[in-house]
Known about the structure:
Adenylosuccinate Synthetase, Chain A, domain 3; four-stranded mixed β-sheet; ten-stranded mixed β-sheet; Adenylosuccinate Synthetase, subunit A, domain 2; 20 strands; Adenylosuccinate Synthetase, Chain A, domain 1; alpha/beta; globular
Amino acid sequence: MANVVVVGAQWGDEGKGKIVDWLSLRADAVARFQGGHNAGHTLVVDGVTYKLSLMPSGIVRGKLSVLGNGVVVDPWAFLDEVERVRGQGVDVTPHLVKIAETCALILPVHRDLDAARENRDDGMKIGTTRRGIGPAYEDKVGRRAVRLIDLADADGLRARVADLLHHHNALRKGYGQPAYDAEELVASLLEIAPKILPYAAPVWRVLDDAMARGEKILFEGAQGAMLDVDHGTYPFVTSSNTVSGQAAAGTGVGPGKVGYALGIVKAYTTRVGEGPFPTELTDETGKRLGERGREFGTVTSRQRRCGWFDAVLVRQSVRLNGLNGVALTKLDVLDGFDELKVCTGYRLDGEILDRMPASTRDQARIEPVYETMEGWGESTYGARSWADLPAAAVKYVRRVEELIECPVALLSTSPEREDVILMADPFRG
């Protein structure tokens, strides 16, 4: 199977945008399968920076770009992004971009609820983007969501909104907020309907037809595996399944058609928001990693927490995702360090663990066990072949491969799209 699924293998922000953009040259279509506009990709193409939050990365290359049924869509945010990307010279049309007609929509009531929860003094702060993604998924599972296709039926839409607000207005009352007016919400949705409905399509059929023609599909995930609602560091996770298996469910294709699984792995570790982070560095080294790596979120501009590479975390992600290979990114950020550390295990109550424990309490208590490696003084920035890398950098990459039990298929050495060392083309298995 010539298709490829790309997922983040840490806590997100691994540099998926550049890798997906690079791979999209070899693909005929790019399909996003989960998440919302809480995700973000930064692409640098010929010196121009594109910041995407909902749009699949293939759009910059003019490839068919699909938002699968597993994505939750804020229609206003989507149309704003369309205009922003068009302003940079990208031709965004309903012919090029398709949204699954069954996508659940993110509405103003979802954003309000998200913010109310994060603002509580007596509640657990997850560190969400407050964009309504979690509450939208809740309504989807609760079978009261407004879906994209509902915008085509005014009477049906009113019934949907009434059912939705029966739930939300009770919550709003509990938070001391006024009830939301149903007709106001219906009116705003009917106003935007003609602008977004042209993008609606049976995405499962679009992709099936493409594969029947022998075309290659690149399935694109958002966030990272350790933010998966089932497999991540719960409850400090996102609201969807982020692992490779979701590519099938989130687009409507059979699991046997997803193909090669590629995990994106940063050469160190970062995390945004709350939650456990065993290798986090709050000293000058952590600050240096953040500054060199420009570790600020594409969507929120929040500063990312930084730490050494966690091989235990990535090895677990390799198994959860069934990864065939990884793309190691931001190797150049490690240039100039005298020594580097890699986490090879966790210590908990005197015992060494080889996996992330499931207990929230234990996750907060584990301590990293480090292996120290020699750093390098030479620059790896922009390297496009193994011969361009210092010997210590090659040794670091090979040791990472050993520890995570997965080969490095691609190595990224700068934000520029062509600065990639290719060891194995995922589209060729």
